[in-house]
Amino acid sequence: MVKPYLSLQVITPEGVILNKEGLSAVNILLETGYPIGIRPGHAPLLAVIKPGMVKFRSPGQEGQFEVNSGILRIRNNTITILTLDDDRVASNGTQESIESENNLIMQTPISPVS
Questions:
Q1: How far is CA 91 from each of CA 10, 42, 60, 87, rounded to the nearest angstrom?
Q2: pLDDT digits (tens, 9 = 90+) for 18-30
Q3: Dihedral angle computed from the Cα positions of residues 85, 89, 95 and 97, in that order, rounded to the nearest 10 degrees
Q4: Do 11 and 82 contact (CB within 8 A), yes or no?
Q5: For 70-109, how does the pLDDT look when each residue is reduced to its tens digit (9 = 90+)?
Q6: Least confident of 1-10, 29-38, 93-102
Q7: Percentage of the chain modeled with pLDDT above 90
Q8: Alpha carbon of residue 106 to chain centroid
Q9: pTM for this structure?
Q10: The CATH number of 6-106 is which of 2.60.15.10, 1.10.760.10, 2.40.128.50, 3.40.50.150?
């Protein structure tokens, strides 16, 4: 049975910084530069996102939240964003350093478990 609403979590190395339930739609900017609109029942997806605004809607309410680049996962009407927070931007200096670090993480080979 499909849940009629979405849940959204934004997670940084420090922990969960946003947790929203009962959402009807979420829009996120992908690494390709195009936004993706997510509604209940969306197919599973794993993607890289660009820094920008995450916009979300629930019945009678709208909101937005700014995120850095990161990883987007959609599964069973649950949207999870793994990202670095703004303190990381300040300590590293620039957004480019965060994007460079995320690219390095994405290029690191994963060894099979034996």
A1: 20, 36, 38, 6
A2: 999 999 999 999 9
A3: -110
A4: yes
A5: 999 999 999 999 998 754 443 333 445 445 555 554 454 5
A6: 93-102
A7: 64
A8: 15
A9: 0.72
A10: 2.60.15.10
Name the nearest CA neighbour of 68 among 107, 10, 16. 10
Q: What is the CA radius of gyration of the chain?
A: 15
Cβ-contact 84, 105 below 8 angstroms: no
Q: Cα separations (Å) of 13 from 1, 3, 29, 72, 76?
A: 33, 28, 21, 15, 23
Structure tokens at 10: 């934004």
For residue 74, which phi and psi values (nearest 5 degrees)? -120, 125
